[in-house]
Amino acid sequence: MKKIFSVVLVFLLSALLLLSCAKQESFNAKVLSVTGSAAEVCSLDENNEERVNDLYTFTIPEGETLKEGDLITVYFTGDIMESYPAQINVIKTEKLK
Hints:
This protein has 97 residues and is of the alpha+beta class. The chain contains one helix and five strands. The termini are far apart. The model has no long low-confidence stretch (mean pLDDT 86).
């Protein structure tokens, strides 16, 4: 019984550790263009002004719709592919109010 409890405890602690290590980053952005399921955005500074040199492209998450001019928060995995514009793996987006 103690052995089973120990195995279950180790499994649960391992799962908790993996979940806590999952990266998620975010930034505010303006949608510059939408082509099919892809979007190109530029990041916004703290005053919601465009940073025209910070361009990103990504696939729009399933079930979400974006249009040119939308101000959004982009949640992504934290990985940035070094291309121009940079490519990111987006988890979700939320429209800013």
